Amino acid sequence: MQMTKQCATPAAICATILAIALGCCGAAVLATPASAQIPLPVSKPPDGAALFKQQCATCHTNNLTDPVRQGPTLFDIVGRRAGTAEGFHYSAGFAKADFVWDEAKIDAWMTNPQEVIPDAVMAYRQAKPEVRTAIIAYLKELH
Prior knowledge:
Layout: H1 10-30, H2 48-55, H3 92-96, H4 103-111, H5 113-116, H6 129-141
Helix pairs in contact: 2-6, 4-6
């Protein structure tokens, strides 16, 4: 018995490709993404301690035991007279500063330090009010 080699006709190949494509498309239509049924997590308000660590702790400490860094300790800053943290050498502008740190002054300082004290060296600025508010709330806890 002689075997003959059968070749698929172009019509048969097209029919096979079409069947595979329709099968895939049908599966895609029937599948629904699971993420559409899962509610999004509720956003948390900014965490002041974490923000302090990320944005302030490179230059400032939050206690009296760590060595002084590029900036003074921010421990007990709320209610402290500007330019008086022990062990820190302030710029000349701070010598002229005649105010006590409160929430409003810290907020203004974090927004634009040079506007509060013209020759201030601090380069950090925070444009987002919610971030400033969270950090200030954390600073108020440090005593």
